[in-house]
């Protein structure tokens, strides 16, 4: 059982199964969920045609005008729901890698799985010549999984050490970034522009047909990840301590890596690579809860950040819908500099 820090308050629920919930984590999650829901309502109201709360509620209930129902249910709701679910998925993926590597820089953005998904999508678009959403999504998923297998194979040597996983991942990420640039430079200008636009990471124009499959996959994997939280927290104490608690370390690590990779690849297949969420959301949630890695606060934080960034991308430049990746990359760069500066000061 994960050690309980002294001075913390827990809520105990006994109904067949004893469940203990950290009160601070529960409060942080509740606040983040409330803020995300408020932003979701704002997102359904915003646009070239502004709607009131009453009109949005009527459209969601199948009432109101046909135009309002089309705008809310068919155009805006898929975008808002994708931002929430995909943000949660990316954050949990980052929480898994950061916990396993015990390093705040251990996220899919840094390790290279996002670059692998981007490479797979570029291969589908530029080499295979696929222009369908299914083909691009399949390429992104295959690229992410293939990169994960390669990094895990190279990092495995009498077990997988977190630091070695990061070093190998950064090296593979650098190689894949160069390969991506080469693919773009050697392709036709029109196709390269389309691929580069996809690579910016955007929720613009997303529909139910594009997002439904990935939304279901990410939601299911979030539930599966919740079941792995205890082995993950035991592994944070070290391999020997985890084995003493009955955790099959390599098997659990492999399952967690697979979950984290698909949680990254599935959103990437729909909206392209979106940086910063997987890197920063788990760390911000960790600092707010002041506890061991927990998926619920991280997921709520990821949903809140991605939805906030998407709404900001729609409003920053009047008349222009910026890709959400531009906003998250800008904020993420500043956050990464802050982490490196803090670590440099602590090393002095």
Automatic annotation (TrEMBL):
* Protein name according to UniProt: ABC-type Fe3+-siderophore transport system, permease 2 component
User: Per the record, GO CC terms?
Assistant: plasma membrane
BP term (GO), one: siderophore-iron import into cell
Which PANTHER family does the record cross-reference, listed alphabetically? FERRIC ENTEROBACTIN TRANSPORT SYSTEM PERMEASE PROTEIN, FERRIC ENTEROBACTIN TRANSPORT SYSTEM PERMEASE PROTEIN FEPG
Care to name a GO molecular-function term for this sequence? transmembrane transporter activity
| Annotated localization | Cell membrane
Q: Specify the species.
A: Paenibacillus pasadenensis
Question: Quick check: keyword Secreted in the entry?
Answer: no
So where does this one cross the membrane? 21-46, 80-98, 110-128, 134-156, 163-185, 205-229, 254-280, 292-313, 320-341
What family does the Swiss-Prot or TrEMBL record give for this protein?
Answer: Belongs to the binding-protein-dependent transport system permease family. FecCD subfamily.
Q: Keywords in alphabetical order, please.
A: Cell membrane, Membrane, Transmembrane, Transmembrane helix, Transport
